[in-house]
Amino acid sequence: MTAQLESPAAPTTGEPERIRAAHPILSLLLNRAGWGVFSVLVVSVIVYASTLVLPGDAAQAILGQQATPERLEVLREQLGLDQSAWAGFVHWFTGIFRGDFGTSLSTRQPVTELLGPKLLNSAALVLVAAVVSTALGVALGALTASRRDGVLDHVLGIVALVASAMPEYIVGVFVVLFLAVDLHAFPAISVLAPGQHIWDEPSKMVLPVLTLTIVVVPYILRMCRGSVIEALDSDYAEVARLKGVGGRRLLYRHALPNALAPTVQVIGLSLIYLAGGIVLVETVFQFPGLGLALVDAITARDVPVIQALVLLLSTCYVVLNILADVAVLLVTPRRRLPR
After folding, report:
1. Residue that is last in its domain, among 96, 126, 148
2. CA neighbor of 335 nearest in space, from 20, 19, 18, 24
3. What residue ranges are annotated as transmembrane (predicted)?
4. Measured on CA atoms in the order 299, 301, 304, 306, is the torsion positive or negative?
């Protein structure tokens, strides 16, 4: 009886490219998410410990200097200020997972209800500023790279250098003096009526967005310019020129796509900067967002609001860092190859 030999299975040619490319992204997400959770935990401990050493007495600040010791003791018990540091931290930290950040000491509102509208206003401000600054920075960077060493390149280079050296509040003051005081083109402050959102009066968002854009664009412009110049001087760009490709087609179809990786990284860092820069900008324009709420909470020694805001901003910082790393990986094919 002749034994039949089974033909060996056909060798696999490898996983599909999209699956192989997804492995580094998933690995990066898991790694960054783990470190992000650890970072948020550390920040939560630091935030809570820092608020414990703030000067003054929250109960005294609420009731005033004429309050009796009995009333102060009752209010401290109601606010949970009579608990030990560890018990207070455990109560506060476990409440976060239930969506309970406590009660504001100043307004006696739940912190989530107090900060909800302000979070939406700040998110709208950062989103609009990010879109405008990214589009403007990339466009100007590509334009100056295509006309390097020209008059426009030198002028924009000097303007970008000066703008990058100015703090946000200085830029905001100049913007207010020029566009609000001299030209009366836009409102100088962004105060809203109760119940309103910033998109109900978009003119009050123009000056804060312009300030953030002026601060962020120089970094994107300079990085994009350098990356595009490097791409235009590369071998593949020279080969494209020999084939008759030139002008805008060479710039936008060959040089700019290959210059995206370092530019995207700077854009991600700029978004992170915007998330932190809103504190000063919102204070200058009295913009009803998280930045102004943080300043007001520190002034009033509103500990639950301070804790929630600092934890929220630090979480945004961690999430934006992860998204920036993933974006760089997506636009850099060689970094997605398995090692």
Report:
1. 96
2. 24
3. 33-54, 123-143, 155-181, 205-221, 259-285, 305-331
4. positive
